[in-house]
Amino acid sequence: MKRMRIIGLCLVAVFALSAVVAGTASAAKAKPKLILKIKGGAALTVGANVQFFSSNLKTVTSGGTLECSENTLYGKVTENESIKADKISVTEETSVGAEEYNGEKHLCHVSGALGPTKITSGKFPWPGEFTVKKTQVLKGSAKVEFTSVFPEAGGTTCHFEDAKITSKFNVGGPLIVTTTGAKFKPGSGSSKACPKLGTLGGTFEVTSEGQQVEAELT
């Protein structure tokens, strides 16, 4: 009888250990993975084109608010379906406005005295990542930079820079990246008339080859 009890206790210990091992394996499998995919379709492959489009991006400065009709970032997927962060590389940006000065069209609106501005971006590529914590980080090489030239103010030039832009994004539904409070300061070569700080905010809708992109945590 005593031997039977010992065998029974051994079996209980084995079952308990199995439960612990199974629980540990289950916990390991539960680690979330982030997938960037065509809405309702397949995951984006490495090398897939992505676009970030905004119609409400604003940079607020002491010299006025800069606002374009359209801001578009162009890039490619460099890593997807990661348990930490999916990665992209932005290689181009365009800023288009409805203002005009001296025959030059597509200038962006500025509410201050400097007048409309032509905006170009530089220091590409801008490596970026979407993390499982629903944050999106965009960095420059070595900084994210956009240059504003103000033809009405004699060609005053401002090179606004930020080391990185941290945004939020949603999981499920059309992928929207929301940026608030990104701080840009004038860099080397900027005119003394440039504002000392610009605060950027707005939303970007993400697409690939004209199709909506969504983020999924599995």
Structure, explained:
By secondary structure, the protein is mainly beta. The chain has two domains: about 1-30; about 35-215, Porin. It has one helix spanning about 1-30, and strands spanning about 35-40, 50-55, 60, 65, 70-80, 85-95, 100, 105, 110, 120, 125-130, 135-150, 155-170, 175-185, 200-210, 210-215. The strands form two sheets. Strands 2-5-6-11-12-13-14-15 form an eight-stranded antiparallel barrel. It has a two-stranded antiparallel sheet with strand order 7-8. A hairpin with a 2-residue loop joins strand 3 and strand 4. It is elongated and about 60 Å long. Mean pLDDT is about 90; it is low at about 1-20.
Indicate the topology:
Elements: H1 2-29, E1 34-38, E2 49-54, E3 58-61, E4 64-67, E5 70-79, E6 85-96, E7 99-101, E8 104-107, E9 109-110, E10 118-122, E11 126-131, E12 135-150, E13 156-169, E14 176-186, E15 198-208, E16 211-217
Antiparallel strand pairs: 1-16, 2-5, 2-15, 3-4, 3-15, 4-9, 5-6, 6-11, 7-8, 10-12, 11-12, 12-13, 13-14, 14-15, 15-16
Topology-level CATH name of the largest domain:
Porin
Counting DSSP E segments of at least 2 residues, the number of strands comes to: 16
How do the helices and strands follow one another from N- to C-terminus?
A: HEEEEEEEEEEEEEEEE
Q: Give the second-level CATH assignment, the architecture of the largest domain.
A: Beta Barrel
Main sheet record:
8 strands, antiparallel, barrel
Main β-sheet, spatial strand arrangement: 2-5-6-11-12-13-14-15
